[in-house]
Amino acid sequence: MAAAVTSCCFSVLTSTVKFRSSLTSQRRFATSQDSIASISPKASDHRLRATNPKRSPSSSSFSHKPIREKQAVPPKNIPGRSNDGRNYSSADENSGRGDRGRVQSTSFKSSGMQRKDNKDFLFDMKEQLVEPENFQDTAFLNAVVKVYCTHTAPDYSLPWQKQRQYTSTGSAFMIGDGKLLTNAHCVEHDTQVKVKRRGDDTKYVAKVLARGVDCDIALLSVESKEFWEGAESLDFGRLPCLQDAVTVVGYPLGGDTISVTKGVVSRIEVTSYAHGSSDLLGIQIDAAINPGNSGGPAFNDQGECIGVAFQVYRSEEAENIGYVIPTTVVSHFLEDYERNGKYTGFPSLGVLLQKLENPALRACLKVQSNEGVLVRRVEPTTDANKVLKEGDVIVSFDDVRVGCEGTVPFRSNERIAFRYLISQKFAGDVAELGIIRAGKPMKVQAVLNPRVHLVPYHIDGDQPSYIIIAGLVFTPLSEPLIDEECEDSIGLKLLVKARYSLARFKGEQIVILSQVLANEANIGYEDMGNLQVLKFNGTRIKNIHHLAHLIDSCEDQYLVFEFEDNYIAVLEREAATAASSCILKDYGIPSERSSDLLEPYLDLGGDNQAIIDQDFGESPVSNLEIGIDGLLWT
Fold this sequence. Notes:
Largest sheet: 7 strands, antiparallel
Helix content: 10-25%
CATH class of the largest domain: Mainly Beta
Distance between the termini: 31 Å
Strand content: 25-35%
Number of helices: 11
Number of domains: 3
CATH topology of the largest domain: Thrombin, subunit H
Low-confidence stretches: 1-5, 10-107, 112-132, 615-632
CATH architecture of the largest domain: Beta Barrel
Shape: globular
């Protein structure tokens, strides 16, 4: 079966839109971006990047894939995973990276990351591009801007350096108060962001104020007063209904001027977001969304902005499936930023749920009515772990009844996934849950906070942690590292832990020996790599900072590292210390550790030695427990 692909639209250049002075909770938008394909792009993982084979300038100009500038080699993208088991990729994924052959039967990508041949492209353009008519002279088109971004991503395999920079373009729009909205993937790993208004030949420098990875929204500001002269911000409309007309505006591939495509609303439901590997409300439309549209607004017939274009679904079995971030998600992002002065993220309940459609199952659990979902597992680090138990049945959330399929009422005659109610909350909010425990109904309360992954999808601060001891390079396992190293070299055991294991305490990380920089001090260990380090001198390792602390405070003659599968590496402490400076010089490494490991170590996990002594992955989450076949994380 042909592989299906969903891609985010953006061409590594972002566009801007006017921002209204009053940022209400009901007005939020995200933009989508297209990456610029380089003349000779590198192959990359399909999950986060689109394939960009070498092409002539003429052929690339008619490709749905992002176009890169000046032969810049884009960095590798971070793989995304969705709760429904499908692979996702951000708009940056199409910035000239090749498929590594791991495509699954269904996948999503940021819009504009998938390419078609010239014939298909010309057909789509002729069929779906519409004449602007009343749109061409309206003021709100001038609120849509083109974004130009220069990206410099970390090199996760060599964490002390950066990858070669690359450029991309996308779209954005004005929301007032000197601010713009675009997609987070349009300005990921940005070193410079510039925006250009419609009909203007001047590019203005923009600053990224906030970046919401989970919702794929970024907030930009432009300080230049000249940029805002005569500018008008967009008005935000309500959540549309099915079959409502929708018009997508942006700067996709195929030309340099603004583009307008038209369609209708096909579906509104909780959708997997490719860039953030999260599940939030999304609007499916059939209007054409191509690379470069990312971050651009979608309008209704009244000229109101009803969302932000951000990704598409590609498959030989499906056509014209694009996605828009609705205003409800955008307003949540903006209100979160206003409340905290920064973006904190969408909260999670932290429970694994199973549907209760089977009558015998409900009867066994003493559930009298045809409602509720079964709690299969609770994340140990969440507040829900204090009030919920495995085997509980959640029948209501803030007095809203939960159906046996895990859905709740939505608008007049619709139902939507239970997770939608949780996404309406903010970090730190309290939710009241109605549960049935051993046949007895009761009420409990839980504090909601953003979910923390044992193996993160994105690295805070854009720079991975590392420490080098006598040429042994240690770093935390992350999805970007897995993407760069390839799944084959990472190994099955680490992949299983990355995909299915849960953090047992706050601050827990899987620390691995990434590679060994050959030197006389580490003879015999040169072939070791991608092994999880479990203990140092007999002490269980909690995270990379804990390992650095143990090494710094060690006064023993030997440094003993214990790995999985009973591998052991022993170094003579004084010899290892003496060899470090020489190794750093030989390999051109500026420092033996990342800057964050220079800070004093703080034990965030507290007294959890009993938990630490358990083996990693002792009870990993199974394939079913990550969202397939009716079992969903919420």
